[in-house]
Amino acid sequence: MYTSDITAAIIRAAITIHRKLGPGLLESAYEACLAFELEKLGLRVERQKPVPLVYESVKLDCGFRADLVVEGRVVVELKCKEALHPVDEAQLLSHLRLLNISVGLLINFHVVLLKHGIKRMVNNYREEISTDAYKNTLTAEVAE
Known about the structure:
This protein is 40% helix and 24% strand. By secondary structure, the chain is α+β, with helices and mostly antiparallel strands. The protein is globular and about 45 Å long.
């Protein structure tokens, strides 16, 4: 399975949840629902995965946690706020770097149309990807 297929499945699941629940809930509610939907698809999901910080060869426990890590290949950071900010992107990029994962999704559920709240980010990405699944997922929501 390509990483882009995993991100497409995550986006489809997030769209399904957003259509059913809409904006306005807590981040933890969307996290639980998204984990449930992805596990129904047979994907391995880790919730609140600790993000280790190694500084000068010392592993420090700073309490950093990634909301979801799917199949060990995609980090998902969920937000429920008026707008995403550069610090949200920096947080996701830091998690990608510290977990040595190349692809992440930043999803803000506090929007009218979820496609306006999704940002796909990469960090040193090398895998050949199938972008058709990703594009088709976002195009399908336009019909909403």
